[in-house]
Design goal:
Strand content: over 45%
CATH class: Mainly Beta
CATH superfamily: AttH-like domain
Radius of gyration: 19 Å
Order of helices and strands: HEEEEEEEEEEEEEEEEEEEEEEE
CATH architecture: Beta Barrel
Distance between the termini: 18 Å
Number of helices: 1
Length: 373
């Protein structure tokens, strides 16, 4: 959701040069091959599969929910150590999941972190349909899983302590789109600061959602990001604002702003996607996004933007971006001591008319928000 996510991790990570040695870096001209490239790329240090969307209760469509599901692969060693043991880990799997109830305003987040070893976590190898899996959090039976269903993705998670679970299946409504020419997504200067990045911006979604002891049959629409690479934030960059927006006219928008410590934009890019799936790549000069309100977290003290005015003159777009709920902050408990805002938003036109929906991710706000990964 940048390198999903940077979106890079839904984490602000500055990777020292010593940690990138031996890993492959993102570069132009990557020879994509699908569906194979939906699977893991262990030659690169970081990778994620990121899903967000809106769901409605099939029996009560007025009752709507938002969700997030992200699996991260974090490389520890470029090569397996010279130890003949299945229990030697060269990768970690980190999972983040959240459910937001738009009616009550309640946002529930779950996270986990496991080594890639038998019984804990693993990554599939093409063409095995299981792309990634892990044990559920301690105290919960079962597994978190991500699978390829032949045309898109199925995934499930459960956390009994937090009281959330979902099991969702997706079907593509639009073709895959590269976020940057040939899927090469720059994140700053030099051009080695980049990821390989693609999206499925509209996925028909159905399944079951469990929240506070109630299990609902749900339908909706989702956005999927996949990114992998090795370099991430530059020394002057502290975080990013990422926008994945589905417009009511059938167009989609992906925008990101990488910020400096003073809050100013350091690097910006975007993609405008036509109703049939054609991509137009936007430079930072072609669009602007301006925060007009803020929200302070009682859990972390971080102050986040909480409403935005977006303009893309060449596309005839003026939108107001409004959070569906103020508190959509994710605060890590099991995976790392981090926090970031990941939330569902509504889009309004110049006269306040509904213009679509989407997700915003905000990282690098507040203190002590960078995990030791």
């Amino acid at each position: 959701m940048i390198s999903r996510k940077l979106p890079f991790l839904a984490l602000s990570v500055l990777v020292p040069a010593a940690l990138t040695a031996g890993w492959r870096g993102a570069a132009p001209g990557y020879p994509w091959s699908f569906p194979r490239d939906h699977w893991a790329h262990p030659a690169f240090r970081t990778e994620w599969w990121y899903f967000t969307g809106s769901l409605e209760d099939s029996k009560n469509p007025a009752r709507r929910y938002g969700y997030q599901f992200t699996l991260f692969r974090v490389g520890l060693l470029p090569e397996a150590p010279p130890v003949d043991s299945r229990w030697t880990a060269r990768q970690l799997l980190m999972g983040h999941a959240a459910v937001g109830d738009f009616q009550s305003g309640r946002h529930t987040f779950s996270d986990l972190l496991y080594r890639e070893i038998p019984l804990l976590a693993g990554f599939g190898v093409y063409p095995d349909p299981l792309l990634a899996w892990s044990r559920a959090p301690a105290g919960t039976e079962g597994r978190w899983e991500l699978q390829w269903n032949g045309e898109a993705f199925d995934f499930r998670m459960r956390d009994d302590e937090r009281g959330i679970a979902f099991d969702l299946a997706t079907h593509p409504l639009k073709p895959l789109v590269f976020q940057g020419p040939g899927g090469y997504s720059m994140k700053g200067e030099p051009d080695s600061a980049a990821s390989l990045y693609y999206s499925l911006t509209r996925l028909k979604t159905s399944g079951v959602l469990t929240l506070e002891g109630r299990t609902l049959t749900v339908t909706g629409e989702s956005w999927m990001d996949k990114e992998f690479g090795t370099s991430q934030l530059q020394p002057q960059q502290v975080g990013w604002d990422w926008f994945g927006l589905r417009l009511a006219d059938g167009r989609d928008l992906m925008l990101y702003v990488l910020r400096r410590k003073d809050g100013a934009a350091d690097f910006r890019k975007g993609t405008l996607i036509s109703p049939r799936g054609d991509a137009t790549y936007l430079t930072g000069e072609q669009w602007s996004v301006r925060p007009t309100a803020s929200w302070k977290s009682s859990a972390t003290g971080a102050v986040y933007p909480a409403r935005w005015e977006l303009e893309i003159p060449t596309a005839g777009l003026r939108l107001t971006i409004v959070p569906r709920a103020q508190d959509q902050e994710n605060v890590g408990r099991r995976s790392a001591a981090l926090h970031y805002w990941e939330g569902a938003v509504s889009l309004l036109g110049p006269e306040g008319e509904p213009r679509g929906e989407g997700t915003v991710e905000l990282t690098g706000y507040g203190e002590n928000n960078r995990p030791p990964l």
